[in-house]
Amino acid sequence: MKQRRPENIAPIKSALAYDAGFKVGFLKPMYWGSWLMIAFLWFVMLLPISVQDVMANKLGDLMRRVNKKRRRISRKNIDLCFPDLPEEEKKELIRKNYRNQARSALHLGMLWWSPLCELEKRIVMKGHEHIDAALDNGRGVILMPVHCMGLEAAISSIAMRYFSSGIFKPLKNKLIDWFVAKGRLRHGGYSYTREAGLRPIIKDARAGSVIIYLSDEDLGIDRSLFAPFFGVDKASVPVLGRLAKSCRADVFPSMTCYDEKTHQYVVHILPALKGFPLGDDYQDTLAMNQALEEAIQICPSEYFWILKLFKTRQNGEARFY
């Protein structure tokens, strides 16, 4: 697969650009456990994909039984978002969700180290013609994936096909963060920390880079406004509309699912949000949340229900978690 690379793309030279360099400190004893985990992922990568998926199901069932705190968060989110779902279906959704979470972790080795030809077999993109049409028409492109279990596969797929840029939050474990960053950037592209602000990705978008923008996190009341998400008011960051205007970009929601029969990740690129931006922060944020809902409904068991989606409450409202 040949990457579609803009002619005039150039990184913004900034001390805040994402630093994916190796540090000698990674060899200290505090990281030995992490190195063992990475070695395990390398071993898993060598196994047949069907064996990896069986291991993931077993590991996911164990995680669901052991991690009671996250299980309660998942259950609360599902109760809030799908109040009419029968009890047995809620339990099955959580069971599948944990299995999918384990599978995405075990597949990291494949995303980090497998040859490009192997990744092309394991990740399928549907709807990329929407992005191609926008780029052909001189429009910027903002891809809005939801926080799902196949997110890393989606990032790899986008990076293989398009030159891309994004803003990501570094992980607390610096060694794992290094491997994740290397995996995301192995096909090219640029990453920036949140502290760098929006200027770098706006410049990249105007030069033809596909922007990857995650919009479904709760970042606190100071940076958010409240808009319905599955019928529940959620603290949502009202940036997407202004970002789309600055980038002169179309916004494409995206969801990634895993096909257990073919052992493939399927990255769904949905059509661009119509008439977006709408010119009002609340209306833009409402449209954003509705688009996220539509994407999640493609395969709800793949969404990150373990996140505290409704952590921030307003006007003294009781906490959900």
Salient structural properties:
two-stranded antiparallel ribbon, 321 residues, globular, 9 strands, alpha/beta, 45% helix
Helix content: 40-55%
Low-confidence stretches: 11-15
Helix vs. strand class: alpha/beta
How many H/I helices? 12
Major sheet attributes: 7 strands, mixed
**How many domains, in number, for the residues?**
1
Order of strands side by side in the largest beta sheet?
1-9-8-2-5-3-4
Walkthrough of the structure:
The relative contact order is 0.17. Helix 2 packs across helix 4 (87-106). It is built from twelve helices and nine strands. The model is unreliable at 11-15 (pLDDT under 50). The chain has 321 residues and is an alpha/beta fold. The protein has one domain (27-302). It has a seven-stranded mixed sheet, sandwiched between helices. Strands 6-7 form a two-stranded antiparallel ribbon.
